[in-house]
Amino acid sequence: xxxxxxxxxxxxxxxxxxxxxxxxxxxxxxxxxxxxxxxxxxxxxxxxxxxxxxxxxxxxxxxxxxxxxxxxxxxxxxxxxxxxxxxxxxxxxxxxxxxxxxxxxxxxxxxxxxxxxxxxxxxxxxxxxxxxxxxxxxxxxxxxxxxxxxxxxxxxxxxxxxxxxxxxxxxxxxxxxxxxxxxxxxxxxxxxxxxxxxxxxxxxxxxxxxxxxxxxxxxxxxxxxxxxxxxxxxxxxxxxxxxxxxxxxxxxxxxxxxxxxxxxx
Length: 265
What we know:
- The protein is of the alpha/beta class.
- The protein has one domain: Nitrilase/N-carbamoyl-D-aminoacid amidohydrolase (4-Layer Sandwich).
- The chain has helices spanning 16-28, 50-56, 63-75, 122-125, 153-161, 178-192, 242-249, and strands spanning 2-7, 9-10, 36-38, 78-87, 93-100, 106-111, 134-136, 141-144, 166-170, 195-199, 202-205, 208-209, 215-217, 223-226, 232-237.
- It has a 6-stranded mixed sheet with strand order 6-5-4-3-1-15. A 6-stranded mixed sheet has the order 7-8-9-10-13-14, with helices on one face.
- Helix 1 runs parallel beside helix 3 (63-75).
- The longest helix is centred in the last third of the chain and has 15 residues, at 178-192.
- The protein is globular, with a radius of gyration of 17 Å.
- The model has no long low-confidence stretch (mean pLDDT 96).
């Protein structure tokens, strides 16, 4: 299976409309090169551009949905279109990820559960998602997370229990904590014996330099591919069957005790 992580640069001088068109062109360019394409978190506006959340929020089926659905269908790829600031007509804003099939149909939407900011920013401006989301592809089952979720291992263990074999995580991760990004991506892969596809952004969001360094990690924690700090399309081939092999060769998940309904004594 081949995956392309599109580490798009967010420049505040570029309009969301222009960046949508550019991202759609990059997705279409992966036709025949990738089975799965991934975009970063809040790439239309920048994850730290808090003042733009309300201004640029869109319904689930808004302009980003339309552009990405068409691009996925044109390219014939599974597309994790990163996340958008979603305006729920019956509730608050959400940081919502969209996943499309190769025919351009929306197959999943994930509202980010762990919001960043402590007492300001996203945690104040956006609501928290409630549901774990997986997506079944022919080759593997995806488990969805977004950026700050990476710091909460219980979410990923829950996704494993729901059948996930490959975690897909779009992010707008800051450069000043880049070492955590790499460390946590590898940790989530090792402890869950799963692939991790983590796609970040390049550029600067509202004055916050981005880490870039999108990364693909295998179930043993080995880094299969890693991007640099600038805009880049990182394409890597990986074998989803390695998850089952790893879990069979080193069946650590079978020894879990805490968190189980009926722990062994």
